[in-house]
Amino acid sequence: MKLKNLKQLIFSLKMRRKKRERNNILLHGSSYFSTGLNLIVWRKRHRLFSFISAVFGCFLLLLFAFSVFSSPPIATDHFLPHYSSSSSSVKEREAVESNLDAVFRVPASGGYLGRDLWSSSQSKFYYGCSNASMKFQTADVKTHPNRYLLIATSGGLNQQRTGITDAVVAAYVLNATLVIPKLDQHSYWKDTSDFAEIFNVDWFISSLSRDVEIIKELPPKGGKAWIPRSMRVPRKCNPKCYQTRLLPILNKKHAVELTKFDYRLSNRLDTDLQKLRCRVNYHALRFTDPILQMGKRLVERMRMNAEHFIALHLRFEPDMLAFSGCYYGGGDKERGELGAIRKRWKTLHVSNPEKVRRHGRCPLTPEEIGLMLRALGFGSDVHIYVASGEVYGGEETLAPLKALFPNFHSKETIATKEELAPFSSFSGRMAALDYIVCDESDVFVTNNNGNMARMLAGRRRYFGHKPTIRPNAKKLYKLFLDRNNMTWEEFASKVRAYQIGFMGEPKEMKPGRGEFHENPDSCICETEGVKTNQNHQTPEDQENDNKMKDATEVSDEQQSIEEDPDWTDIDYLDNLGGLKELSNLDSSVLTKQEQPEVEEFFSD
Q1: Fewer CB in 10 Å around end: N or C, the chain?
Q2: What whole-number distance in Å separates Cα of residue 407 and Cα of residue 309?
Q3: For residue 592, is pLDDT > 50?
Q4: Are 385 and 441 in contact (CB under 8 A)?
Q5: Each residue of 145-171: b (16+ CB within 10 Å) or e?
Q6: Measured distance CA(535)–CA(328) in Å, rounded
């Protein structure tokens, strides 16, 4: 019995052992299977991850290549107002603007700056002086009896004015008789006016009679019309250049016509020749009586509005912006419109708007001009006369300036259509009216360094250093971009600091710097009291003088940058060439309404 029980116990133990071994086999098999399955899944995941990594790496390489070879972003949309059609974006924009207004709040008043806004304290010590010296030979002594010089000017009114001025000096250098210059009647504006319809020709001849012999037309030769030899001299040709290149031909042909005569005489001449330039520009070139009378009427109407007024040469027309290559945030529409106009000039390179603006070569927007004037102390009660053509962007662009200065005038708003009718079809005569009002203004503000700006800046220096404000665009550019990150007081303080040396004060520019027509230093004399005044300066005055000297260095540096490209040598297309591309543009962009001296900047 015991033996039987022992056998059963052994058998049960064997069965348990076999069952345990069978379970172990199943357990190991399943672990091996799961390990294999995991290995397969891991391999598939690794391959998938490698594929995804490769695709993502290629995408990154494409992005890198695009960022390297594409053109840099050209500008931010800080300059012209743009509005979204969605109500949510409008609310977001208004919320952002209200937060910014809390920091940058423009006051209605210009504040008290402790100085006279309408005059210079130093101007009384300087005056224009252009009389010839004792050694300057008169026309009756030096004029050769059989030499005639004819001139065909180029550009708009003020560019032609430079050519006329230099033509008198060229005739004096050549000992020749000058025939009244021909005005440009074939450029973009097709102004058919001749010399006698814009300038008082009899006064011109008589006032210069001691300097150069001038006649109205070339006399006949042997009873027949005389065809002069036509030629062109290089830019900025000095007296020796004229004598070398022209005298042999003049002696042989006896009559020479110089074509496209703008900036064809050197900027640097001896003092007597520079003073002759001043006598021509500031005394002999007088507008005709109808132009003078209408200009005087416009000035009187501005004086009826206020004792003092500002004249602003805005220069924000489509042609100006296209030529400059600047960008103001108008998107593809602006790039397309201005780019089509820019094709009018054959030799203009591809523009880099950000670089152009960074170097201070872009006109300020109307809003920026308004902010600058407010920071300089001019309040909302100041009256502004605007000399401008069709502003790019229209009323939307002008709205911020009008909000800052509601007393906004132009020749079209202070004169009737009937009064302007004799002038409105002639761009030169309309530009002459603007010239008179800007010259007579208490403060003249220029928004570019074109011909009208230079001519008026020099004239205002010669006749008493009346304030002439040139925006220091190179410095102001950065300030305008960052204005919403500072208070108004900080902004205004920086504007006033940056504008030292750009306000038309005496001695702002070193002698010989810039165009002579802008800085006629040879024709500016000092009174005896200027040195006495300097000896009795207060510490504050001395500090201001030191700032002026520093600003003069900056101004000269900027001037050298501005002179780097020869803007006066830009070749522009006539109507036959460049205007064909403009036919598809919106007509509102290209409307030409009596715009002053557009052609002058084109070849500037």
Answers
A1: N
A2: 10
A3: no
A4: yes
A5: eebbbbbbbbbbbbbbbbbbbbbbbbb
A6: 48
pLDDT tens by residue, 408-434:
999 999 999 999 999 999 999 999 999
Beta strands 148-151 and 214-215: pairing type?
unpaired
Give every CB contact of residue 460 below 8 A, 6+ residues apart in sequence: 439, 444, 466, 467, 468, 504
What domains sit in the chain, N to C, each tagged with a CATH number?
Answer: 139-284 (3.40.50.11340), 289-526 (no CATH)
Q: Could you give the CA distance from residue 304 to residue 291 in angstroms, rounded to a whole number?
A: 20
pTM: 0.76
Query: Is the CB of residue 559 less than 8 Å from the CB of residue 164?
Result: no
Distance CA 323, CA 346 (A): 11
At 114, give phi and psi (nearest 5°). Answer: 75, 20
Q: What is the per-residue pLDDT across 515-549, written as a single tens digit (0 to 9) for each?
A: 899 999 999 999 886 655 555 555 555 555 555 45
More confident residue, 322 or 602: 322
**Picking from 53-67, 232-246, 374-388, 455-469, which range would have the lowest pLDDT averaged per residue?**
53-67
Terminal Cα distance for the chain, rounded: 133
Answer whether residue 395 shows pLDDT above 50: yes
Looking at residue 161, its amino acid is: R
pLDDT in the model for residue 564: 34
Is the separation of the CB atoms in 257 and 230 below 8 Å?
yes
Of the candidates 586, 77, 578, 157, the one whose C-alpha atom is nearest the C-alpha of residue 348 is 578
- Enumerate the β-bridge partners of residue 230: 257
- Quick one: 300 exposed, middle or buried, by C-beta within 10 A (0-12, 13-18, 19+)? exposed
Query: What is the distance between the alpha carbons of residues 60 and 63, in angstroms, rounded to a whole number?
Result: 5
